[in-house]
Amino acid sequence: MLDKSHKPTWTSFENATKEDFLAVMDYEDAYNAALPDRILDAIRSLDEEWTPYPVNRYQHSLQAATRAFEDGADEEIVIAALVHDTGDILSPYNHGELSAAMMKPYVSERTYWILKHHCVFQGYYYNHFLGGDRNARDKYRDSPYWEDCRYFCHEYDQCAFDPDYPTKPLEFFEPMLRRVLSKGDGHMELNETADGSKTA
C-alpha cells in the first residue's frame, strides 16, 4: 500500500531505489484501475453539438459498436468499434494510431492492426473526392489482417452515420470495455528484453 504521507526525495530515475519504484508501481496500479472511466469520459467528449456529419462522433462510435455487436463480432472488435475514433480528440490527423496505441496492451495483434489502419481503409470511401488515392489501403494487401480491416470499415465504420439506426447506449458497452481492459499485461516495456524476446 502506498504511504501517502511520505514524499519522495529522489530527483532522477538514476538515483531512485527499488523501493521507490515499487511505490511508483503501487500508485500506478491504483491510478490505472480507473482507466476504463477515463476512456468512457473520452468517448463522451465526442458528443459535440455541431457536426458536418448526420450524427456526431459520439453517436457514430456507439452506432459502429452496435453494428459490430449485432453482427456477432467478438467483444474485442465491438470495443474497437466503440473506441476507434477517440484518438480524434488529441490527434485528429492520425487518430487511428492513437486509438490503437491506447488499446495495444489489451487486445490482439489483429484488433490493434485494425484500429491502427482503419483511417487509410476508410479513405477508400472519400480520398478520391479530396485529391487522394482511394486505393491507398492496397499497400497493406500482404497483411493477414487486410480483409478484417476492410470488413470492419465497410460493415461497422463507414455506414455508422444513420440517425435512425437503433443504437445501443454507452452503458450497454461499459461492461464489455471493462472486461477487455482487464486482460492487459501491464507495462509493455517490462515484457521486453535486449535480444527481442519476451520475458516469462
Automatic annotation (TrEMBL):
Annotated ranges, domain HD: 57-124
**Lineage top rank: taxon:** Bacteria
InterPro entries reported for this sequence: HD_domain, OP_Dioxygenase
Any Pfam family hit: HD
Q: What is this protein called?
A: HD domain-containing protein
Question: Where does this protein come from, organism-wise?
Answer: Ruegeria haliotis
